[in-house]
Specification:
The chain is an alpha+beta fold. It is built from two helices and five strands; from the N terminus they run βββββαα.
Amino acid sequence: MSVYDIGRICIKTMGREAGNYCIIVDVIDKNYILIDGLSVRRRRVNFKHIEPTTDVIEIQKGADHNAVEAAIKKAKKTKLMNQTVSISLK
């Protein structure tokens, strides 16, 4: 069991989508993961650019965007996924 499990809800900390919630869809290698979300485009990101939360949603590995949206609605996390968190500059 890893902190970066498939289906884990994370907060993006770097880039133009910083502060938005996303879900881990696939683990690519030791440095990169594939994320997707309601306010985040599906993309490959570095582990260092996301912060995992304690919430996990049940999805299949490599699930497409429609399956991710359906899983979010089923888990009743739509309000959380549309929120934005303030990220402090270091």
